[in-house]
Amino acid sequence: MASELKNLSVFSTENLPDISEKHFAILVAEWNSEVTNALFNGAYQTLVNYGANEEFIHVRTVPGSYELSFGAALAAQASHIDAVICLGCVIQGETKHNDYINHAVAQGLTNVSIQYNKPVIFGVLTPNNQQQALDRAGGVHGNKGDEAAITAIKMLGVSF
Ligand SMILES: Nc1c(NC[C@H](O)[C@H](O)[C@H](O)CO)[nH]c(=O)[nH]c1=O
Ligand SMILES: CC(=O)[C@@H](O)COP(=O)(O)O
Questions:
Q1: How far apart are CA 2 and CA 28, in angstroms?
Q2: Atom 6 in ligand 2: residue holding the nearest Cα
Q3: Is 141 a catalytic residue?
Q4: Can you give the pTM of this predicted structure?
Q5: Which of 12, 21, 117, 145 is close enough to 43 for a disulfide, judged by CB 3.0 to 4.6 Å?
Q6: Range of the domain at 63
């Protein structure tokens, strides 16, 4: 399985842009808060470790991952926000509800990013069970929050 070979917290840090003046929005879904709080801690610390000003990290919560798209739109349309990081965890349930949430959020965040011309990062775990989630929120497979933060940083360095 791909994850077995990958630690989400191991990434190249070459040629990262200066983010000391950049404003980041972090949106955190409340569902599965044990997991999403761990994702947030990883994302926040990664931003700080690579030079973000803590006063320029703007954190908001939304009820569930489905609401991340609207929350991201609110953040992205704010002129002072440079990048949006969205964190959630949608654990497969008994029905197809998780599929609908996951597809809606993935497409929704993509749409927001393109509409507002800003990086909007998909930091949403879509595990089959709680253990898979914990493994990717500071466990054996690292922390997708770290990955989401470094992705935001790298995207701020992409220009033409
Ligand atoms: N089951 C999970 C949810 N469900 C809630 C939805 O995200 C949404 O808030 C609701 O459908 C109302 O619009 N959310 C998660 O983030 N994770 C889940 O496992
Ligand atoms: C997606 C979820 O985990 C939550 O909405 C419960 O899903 P289900 O009703 O399919 O068990």
A1: 26
A2: 93
A3: no
A4: 0.96
A5: 145
A6: 29-155
- Structural domain includes residue 48: yes
The residue contributing the CA closest to ligand 1 atom 1 is 90
How many Cα atoms occupy the beta-carbon half-sphere of 94 within 13 Å?
0
Number of domains in the chain: 1
Q: Are 26 and 44 in contact (CB under 8 A)?
A: yes
Over the stretch 13-49, which tens digit does the pLDDT of each residue have? 889 999 999 999 999 999 999 999 999 999 999 999 9
pLDDT in tens, 60-87: 999 999 999 999 999 999 999 999 999 9
81 labeled binding residue:
no
Cβ(121)–Cβ(88) under 8 Å?
A: no
Residue 24 lies in a domain: no
Residue 23 lies in a domain: no
Tell me the sheet residues that pair with 136: none
Pocket (CB within 6 angstroms of ligand 1) = 29, 31-32, 63-67, 88-91, 101
Q: Could you tell me the distance, in angstroms and rounded to a whole number, from the CA of residue 112 to the centre of ligand 1?
A: 19
ipTM: 0.97
Per the annotation, does 60 bind a ligand?
Answer: no
